């Protein structure tokens, strides 16, 4: 591990695999120790951090004062206590205070960082996988042996297809076959470049037409008998599909048609399969070919589906959605049903939204169709967000060509397209796509979202606070894309959370003459007692005259009496001096595992529960608030907002059961949301204390976050990403997202460029 000052720490993980964090003092790695309040609710689960007991950090003098005066009570209530307890406490406590005040101990806490939060001392020393600025890319290094992550498609010049590579041309005089597959370049050259290349785009799904070759079927995991049955279907289904294409081309009076299985060159398939969007854009018109599904045909006794059912099956596939969005609007879309005696029915794009997309995203699909028809113009952010929402609901029902097919399908809707890279994940491909296009800082907004369920995959853009993505305004920028589904962030404000213990909090109060006099008297108390004792003793032993002894005894008695009065009044004087409003405090973030009550926290920090701390009203999804009942009714305020003690479980929406929420992302939880050991860690309750805003927030996370990173804002509050630190990869991982007051930025330092993972 290389820290921010360039120092190396060589760590044998097998000796001690415990979690570590970056110390704010010197930036070195240190073991993470977490103070715990109450019983551990997950004692049987492995912890990767050490725990220590929660303890009080109030100075002994202040703690003793509030023990004497019963801090939670007013003085009137205190003096109504039984006299034996009252005077016994007062007498014992006063003598103890005299002893404690004899030692020169300051009651003022240390001011650190000029009152600022502890900084996050981090520096990223590596290259990004793909840099936002090409000059920062590894390929620009003097000794580089790699190529850039971007290719010519990034500038949208030579990579876009202006026409297909191959087309199926209908023969003027039918021979053995009614069409022939011809290279478009050869065709154009043969006609001296003067040729009308109108063609029909035939949209179909492999769920209904068995167009897999024998080689493709061998790679699929299915019984051998089923493979043999599907092999028999292959030739017949391909002929049926071609006949539909031939008929559609002749009906439209064009010379050619395009079918993916015939017109995509196997040699360029890995790249061309994701450029079909260019083919559909250049088509004369599009038709939809439907046939009874392969599953129904393989299952004996299953009745054939009707047109509406077949059309819905077609609409459930991932790759058919960009086809309907990008097809030309000059002509209506013909629906060709195999073995149907009726003429093909024709529909407009907008009418297909209700016919083919009967699911709950029909309205979202209609918005996309309206956008491409020019009747409802979406912003780039809305286009990508709605498109991602529609595509992700279809990814599980479609055979994918690559891990990143979700991002590649979305790529067809946008102008600038990065190169398809073998083996990249959906997130990496989507990140490249977001950087390549003017996506209105989509990825920066996405990292500020709090998923309602921790296992929710990144592409399900749903916020726990029901905030839309365009309502979040980023305050940082993505500088590059890292390995292992990470991004490089720059420009964020940050602070370190202290977990191992609380610390005395420095504060500023209004200086008054009374507080100054009390402070001088109490600090002079040992000297007054010493002076009185010396005078009294000297008068008795060193003077023979009676009047001198009497005067000395009187003066000494006066001093001793004054000391006795001050000692007797010292609990009240100290209480009077220490109480009062805080005008400013040292900024700290303290973390506690567990859910201590507000009174316990305030007593541990300041010695007494005086109402200085309060729960956050909307800091986390556990926060709760209500309209204050006893507050005066002010017409301009609409009621006073009063914070309540947070919940200890995540509240669910009224229209969604807990089981429904968990079921949404079962498959993605297995692949993307597991920890390094492949086990989903349980979420624990943690408490965050902010001594600058004097608020306490309760939240849930799988691991204790060690850093607060401010990356955006919405609704007048800052989005604070609470992150744990993976020292093995030097990456910050998002554990949860809180909402904090904007004033915290006044006491935060900027964080150097860092690696971040959602």
Automatic annotation (TrEMBL):
Entry's transmembrane regions: 84-103, 520-543, 549-574
UniProt superkingdom: Eukaryota
Feature: compositional bias, Basic and acidic residues: 652-666
Keywords, alphabetical: Membrane, Transmembrane, Transmembrane helix
Annotated region described as Disordered, given as residue ranges: 646-679
Record-given protein name: Heterokaryon incompatibility domain-containing protein
Organism (species): Glonium stellatum
